[in-house]
Amino acid sequence: MLSLPTPLLFLFVFLLLHSFACAVDVSHDGRAITIDGKRRVLLSGSIHYPRSTAEMWPDLIGKAKEGGLDAIETYVFWDVHEPARRQYNFAGNLDLVRFLKTVQDAGLYAVLRIGPYVCAEWTYGGFPVWLHNLPGVELRTANDVYMNEMKNFTSLIVNMMKQESLFASQGGPIILAQIENEYGNVMSAYGDAGKAYIDWCANMAVSQNIGVPWIMCQQSDAPQPMINTCNGWYCDQFTPNSPDSPKMWTENWTGWFKNWGGPDPHRTAEDVAFAVARFFQTGGAFQNYYMYHGGTNFGRTAGGPYITTSYDYDAPLDEYGNLNQPKWGHLKELHAMLHSVESTLTNGNITNVDLGNSVFATVYATPEQSTCFLGNTNATSDATFVFEGKQFTVPAWSVSILPDCQNEGYNTAKVNAQTSVMVKEPNKAESQPESLRWTWRPEMADEQLVLGKGHVAAHRLVDQKDAANDASDYLWYMTSVHLKDDDPIWSDNMTLRVNCTGQILHAYVNGKYLGSQWAKYGVFNYVFEQDVKLNRGNNLIALLSVTIGLQNYGPMFDLVQNGIPGPVEIEGRKGDERVIKDLSGHLWSYKVGLHGISHKLFSVDSDSASASNWQSQALPINRTMTWYKTTFKAPLGTDPVVVDLQGLGKGEAWVNGKSIGRYWPSYDAGLDGCSSDPCDYRGPYDNNKCVSKCGQPTQRWYHVPRSFMEEDVNTLVLFEEFGGNPSLVNFRTVTVGTVCADAYEKKTLELACQGRPISAVKFASFGDPQGACGSFSKGNCEGSKDAVSILQNACVGKQSCSIDVSENTFGSTTCGSITKRLAVEVTF
Ligand code: GAL
């Protein structure tokens, strides 16, 4: 055997290893992105790593791959990575490198949206609040202090990626990177400095030398070589600002986010598919679902203000990672269709034909193949017409894709994928809620309520961001008012009036609770006004101001005030006469945070002294500012876990010391906006369409990731701010209850339920069945064979089954020329 000298052997091994990390070449022209010589139709989906846990990533990314995606898009969240200036955190679910390597291991590409302003319904749009508190800083504009920090963080991330060879140019998964985020939407508010800033962003990005293209979304004047991209529910009308830029869609909103007091958003599978198909009909090259998995706003990461803890988004994967069916499956079918004609779409000659009545045909032709799109953008009328000698019917608001220009391979309005109805099953490990033993303790606020003790003081009312520096949602504003006997304010009717900007105020006078008030979503300024009894001599006013996520969007969003801007006044009324004492310029003392939070009452290993202060006697109900604690057994199995917090007011919850987010089940969604009519996929979608759950708690269920729990005993701690009743709290698993399908002839119906066997077929009919999932009935015609027994034979006892939907399988019908359908309902 040939033996090599040691240095040569090293060189050989080095070259061998290196050859595995071959550079991947990413280039583009006005038509398509080319990866390693192949022109691509790129389908991507957003998954934000901190909105799930590292343990969930392989499953989520695997489901994205199985759903037919090529790439995963994520923002990078500056505030959590650099919580204090030059102190970094990339641990646990903040392990960006591990996330990207998981994407790479699954064989997918990545789109890295560094921002580092990201919006994303994330608190303060992802900016760390210390940035706002740097002397001389102005955010998102040509300001040296800001640009220095932005460059520092961007370079840190880029270098981290380079170190790990994560750019495609190094053989890694990252094919595109983004700088800034939708600056074009707000740029005019920054005047000339805005333009100078965006030019600087482009130069700074280019100077990072990442070897893959940079994008800027919603930036119609993006400096070259930045590719400007589109965000929205529809982007078929979009054209980039350079003939060399491919048509790219960075955010196809698959639904919408939810705010406290808002209903549940829902965007239909048909409409999402329609938007995607129209985008590729009109020359699209890259499309990304925002979100593909929305996930959970753990801790205090929800922005807004007033964004809920759930960031489900009605995405193809639900908050917990389950398939949101039929959306996931209907899009999977579309992805397969688009990929099957990738070469024709990216190379073919394009011919557009306007067929009238909002019907458009597009032919992509290469010498080998022609592929046609027939798009009907009419919101109400189906269209029947002759195209290239053949008759076609395209339902209203839908697109048919004909891979060979002859036969319909996919229509966006014809959903063949199964619908899964999810259920929340009781915890089989113990019988909750009865088994939960609660202890409690009051939040200790005497230092504030009785002594007015803070850690800083000022002769003015300060902004909560400036004072709290985001260390907590809570800030005490305390002042004393000395009223002499002869003060003109004395009267029988005295009022305390506080002008607030958000979002909750709890007022105390001389140690006694006076009242609370909170903002409504979208109207964050309000006036708290309550009658008050004051003492002659000294009076202590203690105001607890609470934020619920910092503003994340809009021009100068970073300057939106939080807390109590004032004035704070006492008013005395004698008949028509009013005497006002303005306390705004008094000496105010400030205290950030709550005693219980700084003493880590939520932690499992809180010291024994404080542990002994938990009482099991006389569990209070509807008591404000109260800590509750219990232990529980984790539900058996692997299905995702939620905790039902119905009965509680508002606060924060921790499992084994890890925050599962803010809770506010007592906040019902408003009564307006929901309709009793069925949701119609036709016509333009916006976030007010097809909403549900009006009048119900905005969020009753809170995700407890499996990795937060131990197999045996777990601790749940609640900090209850408004007052509530924990006696109904219970843990459940989220799983598929019923599966339905209404599939079209000539398709293959796939039924599956997350690894559980199908136990019974409740309904099956092939022909023209009527009704919807849960209320299917037979129509006027049916196959000659017994559909129920065919389904039973094929599916019962199995974890998944597939059925050819045809007369071959179900026997001939007397339905005539209509397209027959198979309606099915199975249980588990
Ligand atoms: C976009 C923004 C995203 C997200 C989205 C709404 O304007 O770029 O970060 O906020 O809106 O979910």
From TrEMBL:
Instruction: Supply the Gene3D superfamilies for this chain.
Output: 2.60.120.740, Galactose-binding domain-like (2.60.120.260), Glycosidases (3.20.20.80)
Q: Which residues form the SUEL-type lectin domain?
A: 743-828
Coiled coil regions, renumbered to chain: none
Q: Report the Pfam families cross-referenced here.
A: BetaGal_gal-bd (PF21467), GHD (PF17834), Glyco_hydro_35 (PF01301), SUEL_Lectin (PF02140)
Checking SUPFAM superfamilies in the record gives: (Trans)glycosidases (SSF51445), Galactose-binding domain-like (SSF49785)
Q: Does the keyword Hydrolase apply?
A: yes
PROSITE patterns given in the database record: GLYCOSYL_HYDROL_F35, SUEL_LECTIN
Q: Which InterPro entries does this chain map to?
A: BetaGal_gal-bd (IPR048913), Galactose-bd-like_sf (IPR008979), GH (IPR017853), GHD (IPR041392), Gly_Hdrlase_35_cat (IPR031330), Glyco_hydro_35_CS (IPR019801), Glycoside_Hdrlase_35 (IPR001944), Lectin_gal-bd_dom (IPR000922)
EC number, UniProt record: 3.2.1.23
Signal peptide span per the entry? 1-23
What is the similarity comment for this entry? Belongs to the glycosyl hydrolase 35 family.
What is the name of the protein in this document? Beta-galactosidase
Organism phylogeny: Eukaryota, Viridiplantae, Streptophyta, Embryophyta, Tracheophyta
